[in-house]
Amino acid sequence: MRHIFLITTAVLLAQASAVSAQAFGDPVLAVDSWYRTYLGRTALNDPSAIVWVTQVRQGYPPKAVIAGILGSDEYIQRVGGTMPAFIQAVAREAVGRPLSQGEYGFWMQRALTQSRQEIAYEMLTQPPPGAIAPLPPAVLPYPAQPDYRRPYYPYRW
Description:
The protein is mainly α. It has eight helices and no strands.
């Protein structure tokens, strides 16, 4: 009985990893779509695109792969060749609007210590500076919807 359980668990785990790597379709087509969107060309004739396809197949998050493409030398040359142009372009891709003066200064300071890929990933995955992200209900120090029928004591004595 124990062996059947172990074999079943191993088979299910192997299937789960294959499914998660293919969660959004064909990796080659996904990377080709990102190349067309951000680099303005196809990835099908580019031998270096196999790096991104391999990362997608291994289960890397799509935003991490896109950040790698946005952090490439080709992308920075395409958007103007300077760090200010890069930051403005990635902000348009990630946030969908131009940066405010404060946000622009924030990302320019980050550019002194971080790579382009790290900046692109943070812009894609984090709320813009100054935005207040809501806390998930499990983190709140009080009930999300209080029950007014009984008093709430946050600390038990």
